[in-house]
Amino acid sequence: MLMHTITEKVPGGKLVRLKIDTELGVIRKMQIAGDFFLHPEETIDDIERALVGITVEQDVWVVAAIITSVLEQKNAQFIGVTAGDLARLIMQAVKQ
Amino acid sequence: MKWRVIALAENTAAQNMAIDHAVSDAVAAGGMPTLRFYTWKPNAVSIGTFQSMHDEVDVERCRQNGVDVVRRRTGGGAVYHDNKGEITYSVIAPEGGFSGITESYHIICGWIVKSLAILGITAEFKPINDICVAGKKISGNAQTRRQGVLLQHGTILYDVDVDTMFSLLKVPDEKIRDKMIAAVKERVTRVLNFADVSRDELYQALLKGFTDGKEWEFGTLTNDEKRRADELMRTMYSKDEWNFRR
Predict the structure, then answer these.
(1) Which residues in B lie closer than 8 A to residue A37 (C-beta atoms)?
(2) CATH of B2-226 among 3.10.50.40, 3.30.930.10, 3.30.360.10, 3.30.750.24
Protein backbone atom coordinates (compact mmCIF):
# COMPACT_ATOMS: atom_id res chain seq x y z
CA MET A 1 0.00 0.00 0.00
CA LEU A 2 1.37 3.41 -0.97
CA MET A 3 0.16 6.59 0.65
CA HIS A 4 0.06 9.80 -1.35
CA THR A 5 -0.66 13.26 0.00
CA ILE A 6 -0.97 16.60 -1.68
CA THR A 7 -1.98 20.04 -0.40
CA GLU A 8 -2.76 22.90 -2.73
CA LYS A 9 -4.60 26.17 -2.56
CA VAL A 10 -6.65 26.13 -5.73
CA PRO A 11 -6.01 29.31 -7.72
CA GLY A 12 -8.85 31.72 -6.88
CA GLY A 13 -10.35 29.12 -4.55
CA LYS A 14 -9.81 27.17 -1.36
CA LEU A 15 -7.27 24.78 0.13
CA VAL A 16 -7.53 21.08 -0.73
CA ARG A 17 -5.68 18.33 1.13
CA LEU A 18 -5.79 14.83 -0.35
CA LYS A 19 -4.75 11.58 1.29
CA ILE A 20 -4.84 8.67 -1.12
CA ASP A 21 -3.87 5.03 -0.62
CA THR A 22 -2.97 3.05 -3.73
CA GLU A 23 -2.16 -0.62 -4.17
CA LEU A 24 -0.77 -2.10 -7.39
CA GLY A 25 -1.57 1.11 -9.23
CA VAL A 26 -5.20 1.31 -8.09
CA ILE A 27 -6.78 3.81 -5.69
CA ARG A 28 -7.93 1.95 -2.57
CA LYS A 29 -8.80 4.79 -0.22
CA MET A 30 -9.33 8.50 -0.62
CA GLN A 31 -9.82 11.41 1.76
CA ILE A 32 -10.67 14.83 0.36
CA ALA A 33 -10.19 17.46 3.07
CA GLY A 34 -9.89 21.23 3.08
CA ASP A 35 -11.67 24.52 3.67
CA PHE A 36 -13.85 24.41 0.54
CA PHE A 37 -17.66 24.17 0.53
CA LEU A 38 -19.81 21.38 -0.88
CA HIS A 39 -23.62 21.34 -0.70
CA PRO A 40 -25.00 18.96 0.40
CA GLU A 41 -21.96 18.12 2.52
CA GLU A 42 -22.59 14.35 2.64
CA THR A 43 -21.81 14.19 -1.07
CA ILE A 44 -18.12 14.13 -0.12
CA ASP A 45 -18.51 10.47 0.98
CA ASP A 46 -20.10 9.59 -2.37
CA ILE A 47 -17.28 11.30 -4.27
CA GLU A 48 -14.61 9.55 -2.21
CA ARG A 49 -16.30 6.18 -2.78
CA ALA A 50 -16.69 6.78 -6.52
CA LEU A 51 -12.94 7.32 -6.88
CA VAL A 52 -11.93 4.01 -5.29
CA GLY A 53 -10.87 1.53 -7.98
CA ILE A 54 -9.50 4.09 -10.43
CA THR A 55 -6.07 3.28 -11.80
CA VAL A 56 -3.23 5.75 -11.38
CA GLU A 57 -2.89 5.85 -15.19
CA GLN A 58 -6.43 7.15 -15.71
CA ASP A 59 -6.90 10.38 -17.70
CA VAL A 60 -7.62 13.51 -15.70
CA TRP A 61 -10.74 14.24 -17.77
CA VAL A 62 -12.20 10.81 -16.99
CA VAL A 63 -11.67 11.37 -13.25
CA ALA A 64 -13.25 14.82 -13.57
CA ALA A 65 -16.22 13.24 -15.38
CA ILE A 66 -16.69 10.71 -12.56
CA ILE A 67 -16.74 13.51 -9.96
CA THR A 68 -19.10 15.59 -12.09
CA SER A 69 -21.49 12.67 -12.49
CA VAL A 70 -21.67 12.20 -8.70
CA LEU A 71 -22.33 15.94 -8.29
CA GLU A 72 -25.13 15.73 -10.88
CA GLN A 73 -26.67 12.62 -9.33
CA LYS A 74 -26.75 14.26 -5.90
CA ASN A 75 -27.67 17.69 -7.26
CA ALA A 76 -24.55 18.91 -5.43
CA GLN A 77 -22.39 21.98 -5.83
CA PHE A 78 -18.75 22.70 -4.96
CA ILE A 79 -17.72 26.22 -3.96
CA GLY A 80 -14.04 27.13 -3.87
CA VAL A 81 -12.91 24.10 -5.87
CA THR A 82 -14.08 22.42 -9.09
CA ALA A 83 -14.32 18.80 -10.23
CA GLY A 84 -11.50 19.60 -12.67
CA ASP A 85 -9.24 20.97 -9.92
CA LEU A 86 -9.83 17.87 -7.80
CA ALA A 87 -9.21 15.48 -10.68
CA ARG A 88 -5.96 17.21 -11.56
CA LEU A 89 -4.75 17.11 -7.94
CA ILE A 90 -5.73 13.47 -7.49
CA MET A 91 -3.79 12.35 -10.55
CA GLN A 92 -0.85 14.55 -9.60
CA ALA A 93 -0.79 13.00 -6.11
CA VAL A 94 -0.94 9.36 -7.19
CA LYS A 95 1.89 9.79 -9.68
CA GLN A 96 4.24 11.09 -6.95
CA MET B 1 -41.70 36.79 7.97
CA LYS B 2 -41.17 37.59 11.65
CA TRP B 3 -37.75 36.83 13.11
CA ARG B 4 -36.81 35.62 16.55
CA VAL B 5 -33.62 37.16 17.92
CA ILE B 6 -31.74 35.24 20.58
CA ALA B 7 -29.66 37.77 22.51
CA LEU B 8 -25.90 37.50 22.95
CA ALA B 9 -25.08 34.47 25.11
CA GLU B 10 -21.94 32.64 26.14
CA ASN B 11 -21.72 28.86 25.59
CA THR B 12 -19.23 26.04 25.13
CA ALA B 13 -18.20 25.12 21.59
CA ALA B 14 -20.29 21.93 21.61
CA GLN B 15 -23.32 23.83 22.96
CA ASN B 16 -23.01 26.53 20.32
CA MET B 17 -22.88 24.07 17.44
CA ALA B 18 -25.67 21.95 18.99
CA ILE B 19 -27.93 25.01 19.36
CA ASP B 20 -27.40 26.00 15.70
CA HIS B 21 -28.26 22.44 14.70
CA ALA B 22 -31.32 22.19 16.96
CA VAL B 23 -32.68 25.54 15.76
CA SER B 24 -32.16 24.44 12.13
CA ASP B 25 -34.24 21.33 12.83
CA ALA B 26 -36.92 23.47 14.47
CA VAL B 27 -37.04 25.89 11.52
CA ALA B 28 -37.33 22.90 9.17
CA ALA B 29 -40.37 21.84 11.18
CA GLY B 30 -41.97 25.28 10.80
CA GLY B 31 -40.34 27.25 13.64
CA MET B 32 -39.54 30.96 13.48
CA PRO B 33 -36.54 32.13 11.46
CA THR B 34 -33.86 32.97 13.97
CA LEU B 35 -30.91 35.29 14.49
CA ARG B 36 -28.49 34.29 17.25
CA PHE B 37 -25.50 36.12 18.68
CA TYR B 38 -23.03 34.28 20.86
CA THR B 39 -19.54 33.97 22.28
CA TRP B 40 -17.45 30.96 23.25
CA LYS B 41 -16.43 29.98 26.77
CA PRO B 42 -13.89 28.52 27.12
CA ASN B 43 -11.97 29.79 24.08
CA ALA B 44 -12.37 27.36 21.21
CA VAL B 45 -11.19 26.31 17.77
CA SER B 46 -13.86 25.30 15.27
CA ILE B 47 -12.95 23.54 12.05
CA GLY B 48 -14.80 23.28 8.76
CA THR B 49 -16.79 20.12 8.16
CA PHE B 50 -14.32 18.83 5.53
CA GLN B 51 -11.15 19.58 7.49
CA SER B 52 -9.00 17.03 9.25
CA MET B 53 -8.74 17.93 12.95
CA HIS B 54 -5.16 16.75 13.36
CA ASP B 55 -4.02 18.43 10.14
CA GLU B 56 -5.39 21.82 11.23
CA VAL B 57 -5.30 21.92 15.03
CA ASP B 58 -2.64 21.35 17.69
CA VAL B 59 -5.10 19.34 19.76
CA GLU B 60 -2.63 18.62 22.57
CA ARG B 61 -1.87 22.30 23.06
CA CYS B 62 -5.59 23.12 23.01
CA ARG B 63 -6.13 20.55 25.79
CA GLN B 64 -3.26 21.98 27.85
CA ASN B 65 -4.72 25.48 27.50
CA GLY B 66 -8.33 24.48 28.15
CA VAL B 67 -9.35 25.38 24.59
CA ASP B 68 -12.37 23.49 23.19
CA VAL B 69 -12.21 21.95 19.72
CA VAL B 70 -15.29 21.26 17.61
CA ARG B 71 -16.17 20.33 14.03
CA ARG B 72 -18.83 22.53 12.43
CA ARG B 73 -21.57 21.32 10.10
CA THR B 74 -20.49 24.04 7.66
CA GLY B 75 -17.50 24.02 5.34
CA GLY B 76 -14.77 26.63 5.40
CA GLY B 77 -11.65 26.90 7.51
CA ALA B 78 -10.40 26.61 11.08
CA VAL B 79 -11.34 29.53 13.31
CA TYR B 80 -9.99 30.51 16.72
CA HIS B 81 -12.84 31.88 18.85
CA ASP B 82 -11.38 34.01 21.62
CA ASN B 83 -13.87 34.49 24.46
CA LYS B 84 -13.44 38.26 24.50
CA GLY B 85 -12.12 38.75 20.99
CA GLU B 86 -15.12 38.30 18.73
CA ILE B 87 -18.86 37.97 18.33
CA THR B 88 -20.37 35.06 16.42
CA TYR B 89 -23.79 35.17 14.76
CA SER B 90 -26.07 32.61 13.17
CA VAL B 91 -28.85 33.16 10.67
CA ILE B 92 -31.24 30.21 10.50
CA ALA B 93 -34.18 30.58 8.12
CA PRO B 94 -36.14 28.82 5.37
CA GLU B 95 -33.94 28.93 2.26
CA GLY B 96 -36.91 30.04 0.18
CA GLY B 97 -36.45 33.55 1.54
CA PHE B 98 -32.96 33.62 0.05
CA SER B 99 -31.67 32.82 -3.39
CA GLY B 100 -28.66 30.71 -4.34
CA ILE B 101 -25.76 30.12 -1.99
CA THR B 102 -23.40 32.70 -3.49
CA GLU B 103 -26.16 35.29 -3.59
CA SER B 104 -27.24 34.64 0.01
CA TYR B 105 -23.67 35.16 1.26
CA HIS B 106 -23.98 38.57 -0.37
CA ILE B 107 -27.25 39.32 1.40
CA ILE B 108 -26.27 38.21 4.90
CA CYS B 109 -22.73 39.60 4.71
CA GLY B 110 -24.43 42.86 3.65
CA TRP B 111 -26.04 42.98 7.10
CA ILE B 112 -22.56 42.81 8.66
CA VAL B 113 -21.29 45.54 6.34
CA LYS B 114 -24.28 47.65 7.40
CA SER B 115 -23.55 46.94 11.10
CA LEU B 116 -19.93 48.00 10.76
CA ALA B 117 -21.01 51.17 8.93
CA ILE B 118 -23.01 52.11 12.06
CA LEU B 119 -19.65 52.16 13.87
CA GLY B 120 -18.13 54.28 11.11
CA ILE B 121 -16.22 51.36 9.58
CA THR B 122 -16.31 50.94 5.81
CA ALA B 123 -16.28 47.23 5.07
CA GLU B 124 -16.87 45.23 1.90
CA PHE B 125 -17.99 41.70 1.12
CA LYS B 126 -15.18 39.74 -0.48
CA PRO B 127 -16.41 36.56 -2.17
CA ILE B 128 -16.45 33.69 -1.44
CA ASN B 129 -17.16 34.23 2.24
CA ASP B 130 -15.10 37.04 3.79
CA ILE B 131 -15.68 40.63 4.82
CA CYS B 132 -12.73 42.99 4.61
CA VAL B 133 -11.83 46.43 5.88
CA ALA B 134 -9.00 48.24 4.13
CA GLY B 135 -8.24 44.98 2.31
CA LYS B 136 -7.90 42.94 5.53
CA LYS B 137 -10.28 40.24 6.74
CA ILE B 138 -12.48 41.23 9.68
CA SER B 139 -15.17 38.55 9.34
CA GLY B 140 -15.36 34.95 8.09
CA ASN B 141 -18.65 33.25 7.27
CA ALA B 142 -19.89 29.77 6.39
CA GLN B 143 -23.20 28.39 5.21
CA THR B 144 -25.02 25.09 4.93
CA ARG B 145 -28.46 24.15 3.62
CA ARG B 146 -30.38 21.27 5.19
CA GLN B 147 -34.01 20.21 4.86
CA GLY B 148 -34.81 23.49 3.10
CA VAL B 149 -33.20 25.56 5.85
CA LEU B 150 -30.30 27.95 5.48
CA LEU B 151 -27.81 28.11 8.33
CA GLN B 152 -25.10 30.73 8.03
CA HIS B 153 -22.78 31.48 10.90
CA GLY B 154 -19.75 33.70 11.08
CA THR B 155 -17.53 35.73 13.33
CA ILE B 156 -16.76 39.42 13.55
CA LEU B 157 -13.31 40.04 14.99
CA TYR B 158 -13.30 42.59 17.77
CA ASP B 159 -9.88 42.01 19.26
CA VAL B 160 -7.65 39.26 17.93
CA ASP B 161 -4.50 37.68 19.24
CA VAL B 162 -2.84 36.19 16.18
CA ASP B 163 0.04 34.75 18.23
CA THR B 164 -2.32 32.72 20.43
CA MET B 165 -4.34 31.73 17.38
CA PHE B 166 -1.26 30.35 15.68
CA SER B 167 -0.04 28.53 18.76
CA LEU B 168 -3.24 26.44 18.49
CA LEU B 169 -3.39 25.96 14.71
CA LYS B 170 -0.98 23.81 12.76
CA VAL B 171 1.24 25.48 10.20
CA PRO B 172 2.43 23.54 7.15
CA ASP B 173 6.07 24.07 7.96
CA GLU B 174 7.46 24.91 11.42
CA LYS B 175 10.44 26.66 9.85
CA ILE B 176 8.19 29.33 8.39
CA ARG B 177 5.90 29.73 11.44
CA ASP B 178 7.16 33.28 12.18
CA LYS B 179 6.78 34.30 8.56
CA MET B 180 3.26 32.88 8.42
CA ILE B 181 2.23 34.71 11.58
CA ALA B 182 3.60 37.94 10.12
CA ALA B 183 1.69 37.28 6.88
CA VAL B 184 -1.57 36.61 8.71
CA LYS B 185 -1.14 39.78 10.79
CA GLU B 186 -0.97 41.60 7.45
CA ARG B 187 -4.16 39.93 6.21
CA VAL B 188 -6.39 40.02 9.32
CA THR B 189 -7.80 42.98 11.21
CA ARG B 190 -10.30 43.77 13.97
CA VAL B 191 -12.97 46.29 14.90
CA LEU B 192 -10.75 47.91 17.55
CA ASN B 193 -8.29 49.00 14.85
CA PHE B 194 -10.94 51.23 13.30
CA ALA B 195 -13.37 52.22 16.05
CA ASP B 196 -12.85 52.89 19.73
CA VAL B 197 -15.94 51.00 20.86
CA SER B 198 -16.73 48.41 23.51
CA ARG B 199 -17.72 44.93 22.47
CA ASP B 200 -21.23 45.67 23.66
CA GLU B 201 -21.37 48.61 21.24
CA LEU B 202 -20.32 46.22 18.48
CA TYR B 203 -23.13 43.87 19.55
CA GLN B 204 -25.67 46.69 19.51
CA ALA B 205 -24.51 47.68 16.02
CA LEU B 206 -24.84 44.06 14.83
CA LEU B 207 -28.30 43.82 16.33
CA LYS B 208 -29.30 46.94 14.42
CA GLY B 209 -27.62 45.97 11.15
CA PHE B 210 -29.08 42.45 11.14
CA THR B 211 -32.64 43.44 12.08
CA ASP B 212 -32.92 46.62 10.01
CA GLY B 213 -36.10 46.48 7.92
CA LYS B 214 -37.25 43.20 9.50
CA GLU B 215 -40.14 42.41 11.75
CA TRP B 216 -38.58 40.81 14.84
CA GLU B 217 -38.77 40.14 18.55
CA PHE B 218 -36.40 38.87 21.21
CA GLY B 219 -36.99 35.24 22.10
CA THR B 220 -35.42 32.23 23.74
CA LEU B 221 -35.00 28.59 22.77
CA THR B 222 -38.16 26.53 23.09
CA ASN B 223 -38.12 23.53 25.41
CA ASP B 224 -37.98 21.22 22.40
CA GLU B 225 -34.99 23.09 21.01
CA LYS B 226 -33.25 22.94 24.41
CA ARG B 227 -33.83 19.19 24.64
CA ARG B 228 -32.63 18.61 21.07
CA ALA B 229 -29.58 20.84 21.57
CA ASP B 230 -28.69 19.03 24.76
CA GLU B 231 -29.01 15.67 23.01
CA LEU B 232 -26.89 16.82 20.03
CA MET B 233 -24.27 18.24 22.37
CA ARG B 234 -23.97 14.94 24.23
CA THR B 235 -24.22 12.58 21.27
CA MET B 236 -22.48 14.52 18.49
CA TYR B 237 -20.59 17.76 19.12
CA SER B 238 -18.72 16.57 22.23
CA LYS B 239 -17.87 13.20 20.66
CA ASP B 240 -14.62 12.22 18.96
CA GLU B 241 -16.66 10.24 16.38
CA TRP B 242 -17.83 13.59 15.01
CA ASN B 243 -15.03 15.99 15.90
CA PHE B 244 -12.25 13.67 14.72
CA ARG B 245 -14.07 11.94 11.88
CA ARG B 246 -11.54 13.43 9.43
Answers:
(1) 74-76, 101, 128-129, 142-143
(2) 3.30.930.10
